Amino acid sequence: MIDPRAFVAAVQPLLEAKDISGLLALLTHDWDSAQIISLLRTPDCEARKVAALALSLVGCRECLPALCKVLKDPDPVANQMAEHAMWSIWFRLGSATANCELRKGVEAMNRQEMQQAIKRFSAAIADCDDFAEAWNQRATAYYLLERYEQSILDARQAVARNPNHFGAWAGLGHCFAHLQRFDEAIEAYERSLEINPNLECLAEAIAELRGHPRRC
Question: Model's pTM, two decimal places?
Fold first, then answer.
């Protein structure tokens, strides 16, 4: 069992110095993922936050269930650290080739080069079909192009592979809302909030949709 205070004392100076390479070396040399995960359950709030941040750098698939529980931590910063860690891990769960294609696709999407982004995400999926984040990012690209039906198909593939992907559930909700499929939008938003209750914008969207007139 790691001493929570000793862990924070060892990690904090490297965090303050923004020494990522030194932090990675420390984390991989001194502790394994199971030891760091154990700190997510400690009463020491500072240790929980630092542990979640550490897992954003060295965490793997096996860390995700424990991080998912921290999304409901009473401390809002711990929530944020856990959410950040989950996204970071999701982005590296493919093969080396698929991870590279995903990064290039996100870079293209940030440049508004949507077709190039879709090409990269499709390459990632072809190389690693169970890579949920590649499906989710392609769903995002289709959404930004207002190709909502295609986005829904990909987001469904993402949540089939990663049922706790609150981002993909939220994306489904956005697509359904644009298509005026309000009941399905509410259901998707509620699934996202059930996993990550800190997404206040989704609670607001649900309230708005519940007051929206339905089509006959």
Answer: 0.92
